Amino acid sequence: MSKMQMVDLLGQYNKIKNEVDAAILDVVQSSMYINGPEVKSFQDEMEQYLDVKHVVPCANGTDALQIAMMALQLQPGDEVIVPSFTFVATAEVIALLHLKPVMVDVDLHTFNMLPEHVEQAITPKTKAIVPVHLFGQSADMGPIMELAAKHNLYVIEDNAQAIGSDYTFADGRTQKTGGIGHVSGTSFFPSKNLGCYGDGGAVMCQDDELAARLRLVANHGMSRRYYHDEIGINSRLDSIQAAILRIKLRKLDEYNAARRAAADRYDAAFADVDQLVAPKRSAFSSHVFHQYTLRVTDGRRDALQAHLMEHGFPAMIYYPVPMYKQEAFKPFWDGVELPVTEQLSLEVISLPMHSELTAENQAELIDTIRKFFGK
Description:
single chain; 12 helices; globular
């Protein structure tokens, strides 16, 4: 049995147990499991929190990205620029829709796509850019939006790992991630900063016409019951999950602050360990630390993970294989390696990170890591 968990969902639940249990019981007693009032209330509250005009709840984060791309009416063969260092879902939906994922390298320190790499990848076939706000902080959205305007491209934010993060534009304006691009998708997978107790997701946008199309696509292409205007999918957030998310949304800023405090303790503990590079916090983005991801620069990343597991501590590697070298994506690869992605796949390691972490339950893990490096 591990001394720690990567995510302590039970500990978090125990603090809100009475609220959650009552909310679930209310839904059961109402028998309004699909598209009930809890879903509409959560939608409204998410719109207010993110400062977006439209939130369209759906079944999961992968569906959210697919719905976004279908609603934008991207066509087979269109190119979509995506970072090479990300979870498979981001590129998977592009390929699933017979679009072409064009993978670009990322920043060594923030792990996010760089505008200059995006610009170099734009061709006459490019139709969209998908910035992923990886591990909890925003990609540099100002320059990315400028590139999109210059080349008449859509920007689809993948906000599955950074909900609650604030991006600051060059003129000082701030906007939460998920409300910057033309459309965005997020996930409410249980381990996310805002997670439900099953699967869930949402699509967000500021445009009324696009929002209508998002709702159409997510509901079998149906604008009114049994009249199907186009091919869509069936993707919806159920009422029980919405009720849980309403409770947790009210606590999201508190949860994110606790994650930042835990990250601060990690940063301080490893500041004198030359072989470890702490995650950089961008000047233009707050960080909500969906993951706390270190780089191990002496070639002993796998040895460190094994050492931690031997002592009962979990540590994960996100992501061990560059996306373009995954078997499923080899048909899209032009043979050019992306050096930062290659380096990160060999160096990154993620430590336990969640809202319930305290200095006391981090201390032994920190000590175990420091001793591994002779500190």
